[in-house]
Design goal:
- By secondary structure, the protein is of the alpha/beta class.
- Helices cover 43% and strands 11% of the residues.
- A five-stranded parallel β-sheet has the order 1-2-3-4-5.
- α1 runs parallel beside α3 (57-74) and α3 packs parallel to α4.
- The radius of gyration is 19 Å and the shape is globular.
Length: 213
């Protein structure tokens, strides 16, 4: 990418945020994980640039930092960033946990409201860590050690009890549920029941009838 290309892509992020503001959204998330462009700039595995956008961690962060600063000018709601805190690489080239914690602190200083923590995607590597419910939560916990803003946990969190455990043990501030909701559209209501949240109400009477077996 030329410097002009970089500016053009940064402006595209900003224009997307501007449209979100005009549409009345409360929150936007900059996707810096899973091999998308921001992730490719952040990771030394993929960023081979020799200019101000490559080389040092600070330089690799520049692309995202400039986007954040410009998005803040046009979007006035909550701004989140998603990060992949490991690329599953075993060559010693990928960002370390300490590098990601530094990026997290920089994002907090730049005014980000929440860090959405995930793993993988930037290179063609399958997970080299055990896959189980909440398997990415240890990375969330590591980021929580470095920042004071909320940090999310995601990754096969389909059990309400597991979600609550991660919150109660201070491994995460927020839980994101994807596959659980796809599998079961009543996940929230059933989670509230399982966790004895008697004040939580999902349905009016019309929707409640849809749960009758």
């Amino acid at each position: 990418m030329t410097l002009a290309d970089i500016k053009r892509f940064q402006e595209a992020f900003v224009e997307s945020a501007r449209r979100a503001q005009e549409a009345g959204f409360d929150m936007v998330e900059l996707h810096g994980a899973h091999g998308y462009l921001i992730n490719e700039f952040l990771e030394p595995l993929t960023n081979q640039r020799q200019d101000a956008y490559g080389g040092s961690l600070e330089n690799r962060y520049r692309f995202l930092s400039e986007i954040v600063q410009d998005v803040k000018k046009v979007f006035h709601g909550s701004i989140w960033v998603r990060l992949s805190m490991t690329a599953y690489d075993e060559t010693g080239i990928q960002n370390s946990i300490e590098d990601w914690q530094t990026i997290g602190r920089w994002l907090e200083a730049d005014g980000i409201d929440c860090l959405d923590i995930s793993t993988g995607g930037v290179i063609d590597k399958r997970p080299n860590i055990p896959i189980y419910g909440g398997y990415q939560a240890p990375f969330t916990a590591k980021m929580k050690e470095a920042v004071t803003i909320p940090v999310t946990a995601v990754g096969l969190i389909t059990s309400p009890e597991l979600a609550e455990h991660l919150l109660q043990t201070n491994q995460a501030d927020l839980i994101e549920v994807g596959r659980g909701l796809i599998h079961n559209v009543n996940w929230l209501a059933e989670a509230a029941q399982a966790l004895h949240d008697h004040d939580f109400q999902t349905y009016n009477n019309s929707y409640q009838r849809g749960q009758v077996n």
